[in-house]
Design a protein that fits this description.
Blueprint: E1 10-12, H1 19-32, E2 36-38, H2 44-58, H3 62-66, E3 69-70, E4 75-78, E5 97-99, H4 134-156
Parallel strand pairs: 1-2
Antiparallel strand pairs: 3-4, 4-5
């Protein structure tokens, strides 16, 4: 397969067990570094919900967003020009972000800040009074994170 320099390949997971799919994925990663993924199994409704909740989150007031930050775990909100895990002298990011990971409550045996195993920082009526439905945000974002982790595990096993 020949990939044009300016083209990002699209890979379908409809037949992920085929050798052709595996070779296309390998080629995309080595030759281009990126690829679009279709037939991945993530429900369109969930994707739409994530975009909707993201728009609602990023339209919150700055104090509400900043209340949802845990730099030690690289979780929650990160500001425009904020520094995530770079060196102290590194330039900040050119984007805002909201980061989640596998959730470990503080009393969980695997909780370990040094290994970035900790609690997600989610909106709540106390922290984000300008967010109408904090529970919906949490539910959608955690569901999306779980589905994306499943997809990633599926991809690395090809």
């Amino acid at each position: 397969m020949c990939i044009q320099d300016d083209a990002i390949p699209t890979i379908s997971l409809r037949d992920s067990d085929s050798e052709e799919t595996v070779q296309r994925l390998r080629s995309a990663c080595i030759e281009v570094g990126f690829f679009y993924l279709e037939d991945h199994g993530i429900e369109e409704e969930l994707i739409t919900d994530v975009f909707e909740q993201s728009k609602l989150f990023f339209s919150l007031s700055k104090p509400s967003k900043k209340a949802l930050s845990n730099p030690a775990l690289i979780r929650g909100y990160f500001t425009l020009d904020g520094k995530i895990a770079y060196g102290a002298d590194a330039d900040g990011d050119t984007k805002e972000g909201f980061y989640v990971g596998r959730h470990f409550p503080a009393d969980h045996p695997e909780y370990n800040v040094a290994k970035l195993k900790g609690s997600n920082v989610m909106p709540s009526p106390e922290l984000t009074p300008d967010m109408a439905d904090c529970e919906k945000f949490r539910s959608v974002i955690e569901s999306y994170h779980d589905k994306m982790c499943e997809l990633c595990f599926r991809l690395v096993q090809l």
